[in-house]
């Protein structure tokens, strides 16, 4: 069973309690009615779908209910780190530190 | 016309009259309770705690009791508070004068009391949490999963838990706990 560290519950919990919630750090445009269709499509539909290190939103939906951010390796499925929502994109710690076992 | 009483619905609880378990686990329905789901900002926690007469815990996975009420940490701004019926939890919260949301969920939830030396094993039949005393001591609580349904789990003693579950899921939860109770006795 994959364990995910919830930054609000401050402990590792079963993946069963969590839901994926899409790519992280996508900022809503300041004035959405002023942007072009292409800019809207970029913001609303287009995602990077990285192979390897990716930043995602996750939700501890069957726990504390909070959304948070996670850095995850899409090849190994390893969670490299998690951090609270609202924080800027965090650098991934070197060689497995903060990694969910 | 004589009133036979046949036109009066008799209120029953979701788990009225059930009992179950095994040689190592006892399962029973908890008494009816009043419950609120409470949302409060950090700066207003003290005001709500004073108004309810129970300290809202701010440490994850902890609970506290006072004034006949028990408050369970659910999330950073969310608590489940329960107590005896008709003590007016919503009205108490309102007296705080602080901004909050108190939703009466007395009848949304029901509770199953699980006790006996096989309690943790029975719950672990469907719950992925570490229920060892180190990780989940007396008073620890958490919203989590039990099989296919969401529950709020509270450890009330070394060998006893309260399982809060939505009423429409309570038959399922009781059934799976019964299976777990038998497995725990193997
Ligand atoms: Zn959490």
From TrEMBL, chain A:
<dbReference type="InterPro" id="IPR038561">
    <property type="entry name" value="SoxD_sf"/>
</dbReference>
<protein>
    <submittedName>
        <fullName>Sarcosine oxidase subunit delta</fullName>
    </submittedName>
</protein>
<dbReference type="GO" id="GO:0008115">
    <property type="term" value="F:sarcosine oxidase activity"/>
</dbReference>
<dbReference type="Pfam" id="PF04267">
    <property type="entry name" value="SoxD"/>
</dbReference>
<dbReference type="InterPro" id="IPR006279">
    <property type="entry name" value="SoxD"/>
</dbReference>
<dbReference type="GO" id="GO:0046653">
    <property type="term" value="P:tetrahydrofolate metabolic process"/>
</dbReference>
From TrEMBL, chain B:
<dbReference type="InterPro" id="IPR006280">
    <property type="entry name" value="SoxG_het"/>
</dbReference>
<dbReference type="GO" id="GO:0008115">
    <property type="term" value="F:sarcosine oxidase activity"/>
</dbReference>
<dbReference type="Pfam" id="PF04268">
    <property type="entry name" value="SoxG"/>
</dbReference>
<dbReference type="InterPro" id="IPR027266">
    <property type="entry name" value="TrmE/GcvT-like"/>
</dbReference>
<dbReference type="InterPro" id="IPR007375">
    <property type="entry name" value="SoxG"/>
</dbReference>
<protein>
    <submittedName>
        <fullName>Sarcosine oxidase subunit gamma</fullName>
    </submittedName>
</protein>
<dbReference type="GO" id="GO:1901053">
    <property type="term" value="P:sarcosine catabolic process"/>
</dbReference>
